[in-house]
Amino acid sequence: MPAKNKKKSKRGTGSEGLEFNHAMLYAKDLVASVHFYADLLGFRLVDEFRHDGTLVYARLRSPRGNNTIAIHLLEPGKVLPDYEGVRLYFEVKNLAWFCKKLEAAGVKLDAQPKMMPWGWMHAYVRDPDGHELSLYWAGSKRLKKSEL
Predict the structure, then answer these.
(1) What is the rounded distance in angstroms from the CA atom of residue 35 to the CA atom of residue 37?
(2) Helix, strand, coil % over all residues of the chain, rounded to 5
(3) Do the Cβ atoms of 69 and 37 come closer than 8 Å?
(4) In the chain, which residue ranges form alpha helices assigned H by DSSP?
């Protein structure tokens, strides 16, 4: 096909399309969740909102990059679902060391760091409200097609 007839893809140009902003989690105990994400995982508090003196919302920035996570206090009378519909992934280069640091702070891992068939090292943990997190290291394989 001649070059003049090729359509240019806008994917990856940064000028069009969606940009992921943040994920929102709901928490029964927002103070405990902020402690977990800020003090144990290293996120930095960007914004918080209080209503009648009670912390009801917090937005935290990832220790690396510009990604944020928001945590909202669960409304009275509401319950968190029992199913595991979402798992959050956080990449950390020295995964084994990071997991040992969490355990020393009293965090129980659901699964110790383990090499997965697709070549990423994963460990699993839950936040104070039971949201499942995968702590992993993919390195140079992160943006490449997995090979099993």
Answers:
(1) 6
(2) 20, 35, 45
(3) yes
(4) 30-34, 95-104
pLDDT of the residue at 140: 79
> Does residue 2 sit within a domain?
no
Containing domain of residue 39, as a range? 20-75
Mean of all residue pLDDT scores within the chain: 87
Domain total for the chain?
Answer: 2
Q: How far is CA 33 from the centre of its chain?
A: 13
- Cβ(60)–Cβ(46) below 8 Å: yes
Distance from chain centroid for Cα 132: 9
Residues 110 and 141 in one domain: yes
pLDDT tens digit sequence for 121-143: 999 999 999 999 999 999 877 77
Cα–Cα distance for residue pair 94/141, rounded to 1 Å: 15
Q: Is residue 50 part of a domain?
A: yes
Q: Does the residue 10 lie in any domain?
A: no
The answer as to whether 9 is a domain residue is no
| CATH number for the domain that contains residue 61 | 3.10.180.10
Tell me the pTM: 0.80
Task: Determine phi and psi for 91, rounding to 5 degrees.
Answer: -95, 135
Parts of the chain with a pLDDT under 50: 6, 9
